[in-house]
Predict the structure.
Amino acid sequence: MTTSIQHPGKVLVALSGGVDSSVAAALLLEQGYSVVGVTLRFLPGAQSDEVEMAARKAAVELGIELQVFDCSTAFEERIVQPFCRAYLAGCTPNPCVICNREFKFGYLLAVADKLECDYLATGHYSRVLNAGGPLLLARGLDRRKDQSYFMFCIAAMDLSRFIFPLGEMSKDQVRQAAQRFGLSSESNAESQDICFVPDNDYRRLVAAHADHTGRGQSEQTTCREVITPGEILHVNGTVLAQHQGIYAYTVGQRRGLGIAWPEPLYVIRLDAQHNQVVVGEKEHLLQQQISVRDVVWGVDVPRGEGVRVQCQIRYRQQGVDALVTPTATGAVVQFDTAQRGISPGQAAVFYRDNTVLGGGWIC
């Protein structure tokens, strides 16, 4: 008589070969889950080859199956090209949020369904909490590694399908677990923040894409017009210098302006329509209110009713007290204290204590 093996469920684990995803898979195996690994190829060439090799080695060490899916064409279209277009339109994009929505959770959840997996697990430092109502996305306990800011787009997904084994752990505990499970040094590599900008030179990437795709347009402004020289303008209207393309500047930037002025100057805003970089003194960076588009809510919030939140407008930032009021097109955020250097295109994520209420994109 054959007795079927009982386990908590079948789980698909996003496996990069890094320490976080490898330990996540090992912990699930230890807990009795049936584990299948999957690796996504985002980039052509050697960089993706190295990731795949590391993932295959980790899968062998873990004793699990690994499936590899080539997403490089879709990644170029959905992540890299929009990233470049955003800079050319005077915004500062956050591609990791979109990648989480489109690939690391959206696409992989479909793969999990195809492979008849009950759950999808990743090595993110985040948690799913049950507070007696709907499940909520929450910060990882290790605040230094918490990645919930990049994950607000999944707040409205079926969180019961997601497992984050590292959510209750610190990075030191994860490294100790890697040693306990006997994972090799290759599996202890850290992943990069923006995988397709390995040298951190986003300006060169944007310029190259603009030149060969011609897709850097923003409303009435074509790519070729955006990357031509234009004016650097003081907030008082004085033309101070010429720039070589607004994509090379970000809101809050101080260095590299090359302008002599009695006080330090900062980039205040980027005007793609007029091809201008607007600069000013530090106080001009302050904003009391912003608009947010394409808001994803993890809780029911009636339109027009204000909600008290801690709003986080950058990854390495504590949330600040604010009132968020949903609108027909997104939300309006009124900060209790004016905030400095808010960049259109970045994420604004709304927290209550450690749980994610929602988030959207700064206009």
